[in-house]
């Protein structure tokens, strides 16, 4: 377990402390949840997951993937979502 | 600019029929809707936020990724603007421990910072991942300050920052590509802590006026019509409205004009590509005929060339400053609370003059 977490830290998949305090979902402005595998940030309020490349989170609405309730990922244009919500 | 509008109206008088399926006439439809979009942009400040989409954000993202590869390390124009912007931090006694930098020329701002404003945490946000990668790698090479830098890929129109969490928001030449500029500024204001500072530099309406004129004349000659080649840019008078509309206290706007000289019009286009400032209007035509391009360069040369053969390009930069309200900021006193009258002042100073 210790070796696994060391490997995760080396791979740089974690979000640094500054960002984890400041970042929120770009569409709903609610808090984000960090997911280790695959590295991504999940917004539970609207059910969208934002990918993370090399420790850099991609919080552009068009990059988000909508999470189905049975955990299958579907690629969708989350920007349409925001247009409907707003 | 006036010439451009005049040729617009003359075009619409000559041709009344709309043929939307006919490709060669597509430029015509785009030019009429462009003129209304331009006015709508101005009117949007009075009405509720309009959902008018002027810029293609996805294309802008791709262009910025390309600009990351073409970036010139010592671009004098971009560095001059960044220097001017960051210099304003020296005018405040306040320190800004957490700062957010939005799009535009991120690297230039980072380089020009040099410890001003006592920034400890610097968050860089851009729509393009490649641009951030470039900043990250150049940061590793030349790190001489103890600033903790973080990178986030994000859109200025959908700001992913919690309310009241940053002390300073800087945007150097990035906000003039947003579709909803008032909305983006409101989100910036919300992200700021009370007594937080918002500094932005955007391109103004006078920018590239020579290029606008040359493009219009060339297109009128060669193609008999015009399509938008230069994006609609904010006017100085609107910048103040933008700040007050977003709810910033103590707004301040100033303008600076930079004239950059190039050896030829094609050099200007290369520079624009390197800055990521090429055309990303939704209503652009993707076709640019070789003849039209050469005609534009020739007209630019003949109309604006200086004696030594170089051509000037004007960049009008509007610097906007705003603070998030805080009880410590100066406010005008309530009406009727005056304790001294003008007569007293006159008595005091009138004796001397």
UniProtKB/TrEMBL annotation, chain A:
<dbReference type="InterPro" id="IPR005651">
    <property type="entry name" value="Trm112-like"/>
</dbReference>
<comment type="similarity">
    <text>Belongs to the PREY family.</text>
</comment>
<protein>
    <recommendedName>
        <fullName>Protein preY, mitochondrial</fullName>
    </recommendedName>
</protein>
<dbReference type="Pfam" id="PF03966">
    <property type="entry name" value="Trm112p"/>
</dbReference>
From TrEMBL, chain B:
<keyword id="KW-0489">Methyltransferase</keyword>
<dbReference type="GO" id="GO:0008757">
    <property type="term" value="F:S-adenosylmethionine-dependent methyltransferase activity"/>
</dbReference>
<protein>
    <recommendedName>
        <fullName>Methyltransferase type 11 domain-containing protein</fullName>
    </recommendedName>
</protein>
<dbReference type="Pfam" id="PF08241">
    <property type="entry name" value="Methyltransf_11"/>
</dbReference>
<feature type="domain" description="Methyltransferase type 11">
    <location>
        <begin position="109"/>
        <end position="199"/>
    </location>
</feature>
<dbReference type="GO" id="GO:0032981">
    <property type="term" value="P:mitochondrial respiratory chain complex I assembly"/>
</dbReference>
<dbReference type="GO" id="GO:0005739">
    <property type="term" value="C:mitochondrion"/>
</dbReference>
<dbReference type="InterPro" id="IPR029063">
    <property type="entry name" value="SAM-dependent_MTases_sf"/>
</dbReference>
<dbReference type="GO" id="GO:0032259">
    <property type="term" value="P:methylation"/>
</dbReference>
<dbReference type="InterPro" id="IPR050602">
    <property type="entry name" value="Malonyl-ACP_OMT"/>
</dbReference>
<keyword id="KW-0808">Transferase</keyword>
<dbReference type="InterPro" id="IPR013216">
    <property type="entry name" value="Methyltransf_11"/>
</dbReference>
């Amino acid at each position: 377990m210790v070796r696994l977490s060391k490997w995760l830290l080396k791979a740089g998949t974690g979000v640094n402390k500054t960002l984890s305090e400041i970042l929120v979902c770009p569409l709903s402005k609610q808090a984000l949840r960090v997911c280790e595998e695959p590295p991504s940030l999940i917004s539970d309020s609207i059910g969208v997951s934002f990918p993370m490349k090399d420790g850099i989170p991609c919080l552009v609405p068009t990059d988000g993937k909508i999470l189905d309730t049975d955990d299958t990922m579907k690629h969708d244009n989350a920007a349409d979502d925001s247009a409907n919500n707003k | 600019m006036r010439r451009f509008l005049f040729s617009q109206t003359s075009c619409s008088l000559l041709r009344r029929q709309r043929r939307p399926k006919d490709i060669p006439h597509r430029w015509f439809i785009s030019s009429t809707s462009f003129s209304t979009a331009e006015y709508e942009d101005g009117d949007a400040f009075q009405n509720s936020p309009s959902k008018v989409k002027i810029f293609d954000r996805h294309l802008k993202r791709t262009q910025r990724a390309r600009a990351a590869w073409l970036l010139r390390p010592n671009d004098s124009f971009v560095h001059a603007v960044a220097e001017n912007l960051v210099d304003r931090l020296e005018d405040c006694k306040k320190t800004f421990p957490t700062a957010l930098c939005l799009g535009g020329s991120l690297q230039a701002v980072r380089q020009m910072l040099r410890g001003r404003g006592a920034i400890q945490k610097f968050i860089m946000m851009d729509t393009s991942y490649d641009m951030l990668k470039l900043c990250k790698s150049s940061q590793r090479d030349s790190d001489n300050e103890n600033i903790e830098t973080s990178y986030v890929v994000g859109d200025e129109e959908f700001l992913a920052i919690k309310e009241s969490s940053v002390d300073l928001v800087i945007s150097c030449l990035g906000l003039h590509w947003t579709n909803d500029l008032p909305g983006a500024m409101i989100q910036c204001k919300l992200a700021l802590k009370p007594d937080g500072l918002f500094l932005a530099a955007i391109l103004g309406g006078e920018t590239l006026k020579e290029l606008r004129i040359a493009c219009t004349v060339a297109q009128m000659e060669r193609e008999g019509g015009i399509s938008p080649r230069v994006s609609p840019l904010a006017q100085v008078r609107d910048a103040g409205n933008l700040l007050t509309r977003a709810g910033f206290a103590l707004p301040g706007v100033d303008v600076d004009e930079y004239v950059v000289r190039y050896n030829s019009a094609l050099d200007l286009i290369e520079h624009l590509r390197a800055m990521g400032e090429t055309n990303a209007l939704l209503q652009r035509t993707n076709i640019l005929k070789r003849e039209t391009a050469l005609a534009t360069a020739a007209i630019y040369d003949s109309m604006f060339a200086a004696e030594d053969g170089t051509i000037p390009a004007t960049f009008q930069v509007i610097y906007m400053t705003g603070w998030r309200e805080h009880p410590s900021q100066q406010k005008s006193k309530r009406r009727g609370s005056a304790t001294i009258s003008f007569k007293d002042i006159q008595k005091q100073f009138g004796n001397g003059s």
